[in-house]
Design brief:
CATH superfamily: Peptide methionine sulphoxide reductase MsrA
Shape: globular
Distance between the termini: 38 Å
CATH topology: Peptide Methionine Sulfoxide Reductase, Chain A
Number of helices: 8
Number of domains: 1
Radius of gyration: 17 Å
CATH class: Alpha Beta
Largest sheet: 6 strands, mixed
Number of strands: 8
Strand content: 15-25%
Strand order of the largest sheet: 7-6-1-3-2-8
Helix content: 25-40%
Amino acid sequence: MRRLIPRRLIPRRLIPVLAGAALLAIAAATLVSRSDAEPATAVPPPARDEANTTATSETAVLAGGCFWGVQGVFQHVDGVTSAVSGYAGGNAATAHYDIVGSGVTGHAESVRVTFDPHRISYGHILQIYFSVAHDPTELNRQGPDSGTQYRSTIFPGTKEQADIANAYIAQLNQAHIFSAPVVTTIETGREFYPAEAYHQDFLTRHPTNPYIVYNDLPKIKELQRLFPDLYRADPVLVAATQ
C-alpha cells in the first residue's frame, strides 16, 4: 500500500505551535520529493453506479482523514460544483473543531461534495475518494493524524448511495486492489455540519504550510496523473460561492 508521506512528520495540530526558524528547519529536514514518494493506487471504477438521473445536482459526504486535503482534491475535480469541509457522525452541539479533536464526539472530519451527476457520477466520485483522496486501509488514522475523527467513512444521503458504496468496497476487497482490506465504514442518517471559515479552502490559501506540502499537494498531482480527464487546474472554492 502506498504511503504518500512518512509517518515521522508532525501531526497537523502541532503545526500552529511551531513558527519561524524552527518550522523552516523541520520543513527542510523532512521534505520528501514526489519522485521518492510512492504513487496513489489506481482502482477500477465501480461495477455498480447510479442509474440515469434527471437531477442536476447531487451531494456526497466523505471522510478520509484531515479535511484540508480531501476538500482540496475534490475542488480540483471537473463536475464538482462545491466542496465544503465539515463534520459528520455526531450532533450539532459538538460540531466544533476543538471539540471534535478530542475524538469522543462521534464526528469525523468530512467533506460535502456537491456535483453535477451528468458530468461525473457518484461512482466516479468514490473512485477518486478511494484512489487519491486518502488511504482506505487505515483504521482511525491517516498519515500522521490518528483518532476516530480521522476515520475512513462514507455518509450516504440515499439508499442507492449506500448500496453503491457497499458494493464498491466489496468489489475492491474481492479484487485485492490494496495490500490490506478496505476498512471504510458506511454511516447512514448522519447530518453534515460545515466547519469553521478558517478551515475552508485551506489547501489553496496555505500552499506552503508544511502539512499541506507533505500530505496534500501530492494528492493533487496524483489526481492529475490518474484522472487527467477529470482534473481541473482552477479549484472551485468555497469563498467564490458564498
